[in-house]
Design goal:
This protein is α/β, with parallel strands linked by helices. It has 15 helices and ten strands. β7 (about 190-195), α10 (about 200-210) and β8 form a beta-alpha-beta unit. The structure holds tryptophan.
């Protein structure tokens, strides 16, 4: 349905990844149908896992800002897609990485994760009866793997996949390898890791380490990549380090939300007359691209795409549409987040601190 973006196409080819066609996995999810989940590293293992159902889905999110933004929401949505068939879904709080790379204290990270992030994942539809959570700082098992990975991966390899190197990155990367593999301390089982393409270096190093590990018998892990939710500014992706680029969940300040959307980079022509005549360029239009991630109704999205690209709809209208849509979504999410805050407070979710605690689930 969607054309692939130039930069991403180039990257996928250079990195040796494989595209995923919308109909080839046998998974029916809006992100797969729309090509938003679009590439992977480890296609053979991915197919094997999906057909047998013998896999875990795992991803990690840094608690470095108080609320998540639409880019993180997309990762959570991608998790749901692989969760439904997985033996177990694991969502981890990357608090050690936040400390190492952003200087966020563990106490602050904990507070943010319990009050905002985890309730938001649940509000977005992560099923607490199928998913476990953990904090990196509370799971010693990940370090048992990180230690051997440190022995098997050379500095040259780190340099080759990351370019510039610093201790915080190296330590975070080793810990992340521990995250990705620790469920396999229970038994060797394929892991599916839905992430943005920026996380592929970690997946590469992890897969190399799996091949070399002497101490453990791991099965391979699969990186599944989703497209970036674009920055409101038009260049790059939404990022918490640039609040002007991102829409946060929930966004409490409606006028601010409106301003952000109205300022977003548009694919419409300069004058009304030109817009009516030529239609908008959907590949460049940020409000439309954001709609692809948030609007679940395929036929409604299709209608907007055809109206907007033919000039029946103009850029002011699509911005207003997105604004109204998000306002309603935020309203709905706010209530759900409030509800799940209580659920988390009562600890009606599973927070683990070792592989042993998931042994009966795998
Ligand atoms: N490095 C990831 C990020 O920046 C977070 C992360 C930590 C992660 N551990 C992980 C992602 C394991 C996937 C799997 O956002």
């Amino acid at each position: 349905m969607e054309r692939t973006e130039g930069r991403e196409t180039r990257l996928v080819e250079e990195l040796g990844l494989r595209y995923i066609a919308p109909d080839e996995l046998g998974i029916d999810h809006v992100y797969v149908r729309r090509g938003l989940i679009y590439a992977c590293r480890g296609y053979e293992e991915l197919k094997e896992a999906i057909s047998s159902g013998d896999y875990y889905a795992l991803t990690g999110i840094m608690p470095s800002s108080d609320r998540i933004h639409l880019g993180t929401m997309a990762v959570v949505e991608a998790m749901k897609c692989f969760s439904s068939r997985a033996k177990l879904t694991i969502l981890l709080v990357a608090d050690l990485e936040s400390l190492a790379t952003r200087g966020v204290s563990l106490e602050e990270a904990r507070e943010i994760a319990l009050n905002n992030h985890i309730p938001t994942y649940l509000a977005l539809g992560i099923d607490p009866s199928r998913c476990v959570f953990y904090f990196q700082s509370e799971n010693p098992d990940i370090h048992k793997i990180a230690a051997e990975a440190a022995r098997e991966i050379t500095l040259q390899e780190f340099r080759a996949v990351y370019g510039a190197l610093d201790p915080a990155r190296i330590v975070s990367s080793l810990i992340q390898i521990g995250d990705i593999l620790f469920p396999q301390l229970v038994r060797p089982i394929i892991g599916i890791i839905p992430v943005g393409l920026d996380q592929d270096p970690h997946i590469r190093l992890c897969r190399d380490y799996v091949r070399r590990s002497v101490y453990y018998q791991f099965k391979q892990v699969v990186g599944v990549y989703l497209r970036d939710v674009p920055s409101l500014k038009g260049e790059g992706k939404m990022s918490k380090s640039d609040p002007g680029s991102a829409i946060f969940i929930p966004e409490d300040d409606a006028p601010l939300l409106r301003r952000k959307i109205y300022k977003a980079f548009s694919g419409g022509a300069n004058t009304l007359e030109e817009q009516r005549q030529r239609g908008a360029d959907l590949e460049r239009d940020i409000p439309f691209k954001i709609l692809r991630f948030v609007l679940k109704d395929d036929s409604e999205l299709q209608r907007i795409a055809s109206d907007y690209s033919s000039g029946r709809m103009i850029s002011g209208e699509i911005k207003e549409y997105l604004y109204q849509y998000l306002l309603e979504l935020m309203e709905e999410l706010r209530a759900k987040i409030e509800h799940y805050r209580e659920v988390v407070r009562r600890r009606e979710i599973t927070i683990i601190s070792s592989a042993k605690e998931i042994a009966h689930l795998l």
